[in-house]
Amino acid sequence: MKKETSPARLQLHNLHLAQGERTVLEHVDGSFQPGAITALIGANGAGKSTLIQALMGELRPISGEVVCTVPKKRRAWLPQQLALDLTFPMSVEELVMTGSWPSHGALKGYCAAHYRKGREIMARLGISHLAHRPLGELSGGQRQRALIGRTLMQEAELLLLDEPFANVDSETVEILIRILRQMADEGATIIVVLHDMDHLQRLADDVLMLTGGHCRWMAPSALTHSQAPAHVVPFTLGEHHVGTA
Amino acid sequence: MWELLNAWLVAPFDYGFMRRAVVGGLALSLAAPPLGVFLVLRGMSLIGDAMAHAILPGVALGFLLAGFSLPVMSIGGVVFGILVALLAGAVSKMGGQREDAAMASFFIISLAAGVMLISIGGSSVDLTHVLFGSVLAINSTALLLIASISTLIVITLAVIFRALVVECLDPLFLRGQSRHSGWVHSVFLGLLVLNLTAGFQTLGTLMAVGLMMLPATSARFWSKRLEGLIGIAVVLAMIASTGGLLLSFHLDIPSGPSIILLAGAGYFFSALFGRYHSLAAKWRRKTAPLSADPST
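Output (structure tokens, whole complex):
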């Protein structure tokens, strides 16, 4: 389940996480390899968002540690509830270009080559025709593609996505699955919170399941077999549509 | 006709105080509206108002110490404005209270303290002067100060522009990208205080925020792009400050309210006839649903 071919970019050592005074997760261990897509699963309230917060350095563990060798500038987080202010007057192209921050910072002007790169990324995502469209006028799927465009521009090496396929059209799902796989093939470490079994089977190399305050690593194939343990059921049979696209 | 235009638009500037006032107004019109645009976009429209009150005790102390000396009053205003912003931030972090709630508490205390200080050391005329401004008081030193502060604001905004935009849109992304992301907000608040202290001489502490906010809120009815919003807001502010001064001169009314009321008229006009979200825009969409382009 965990490939040991190259050193892990992200490691968790006996992590104990809490929200306020309530312990959410205990004894979380594991390592995330470059090039691997890990599906993070669990029922609502199992601690997926808490773990992601800790992985991004936004939540300090009570004990244990998160060791991440990816520079902060090359980490990207696409939250489920978008922290984006969609009334902000910015176009798709401008959003994608903000991904140049690691190389350009706050002051350096964008050169023609960077604009070209931005346009290539938008073409890959099928949003070239939306380049000048304000963010507020995008559909959920178009917005998700634009945000992935920013992470491509950022050349993200660690990518965390919280339910990226929620409320997006099937064309976007196909494009995102293809792009995420390409990013992984190029060496990115990707962690995706998923609820849909079909998406999980198509995308994930590893599965990290959170249940009862603990974690369990498994192969995606372990989830498809009908002998999936009963404690997996709360995740798969919750309010979410198991096995549907 | 020409003579009438000359008498209304040109002749007032034969007076030195009017020339200084108009230059000061134009300088403020360059610096204030971009700050207002960002305040509106960040959903912090009322913070400007709060900060305008917050500078009052400092201005009052400066007045008590040195009389109507713009540099001293400005320094007092800047110090108090930053102090209140820091205190409000600290209280909200300490007690888990939202920053706007802490700010609301501090600004009303500041207003009372400022009015009290001026009343102790001056007359009701002084109080009116500080609260509502007077163009007659702009001398060369004051003008130099206003122009310097406006220049500083425009340059600093240009430097932090990209960071400010990214922070407005997605603060989390900026936090991941820059260790100095926290500074962007602080520098922005600092510029706000500086702008208000530069504006109070012409407009008064209470009216200074008007030249920042009204052109910015009006511009939202005319553009959907950031550059457009800033450009339109600056032009509207320039028209309001120059037009307001002329009205003040001809009708013998206070300059601050005159400038702000003209900007207010611009706001109502925009809300009625603007290109986006205005009454007329809604009416146009209702009458022509088949041909209406939703992106315009």
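Chain B touches chain A at residues 41, 43, 159-160, 162-163, 165-166, 168-173, 176-178, 223-226, 228-229, 294-295 (CB under 8 Å).
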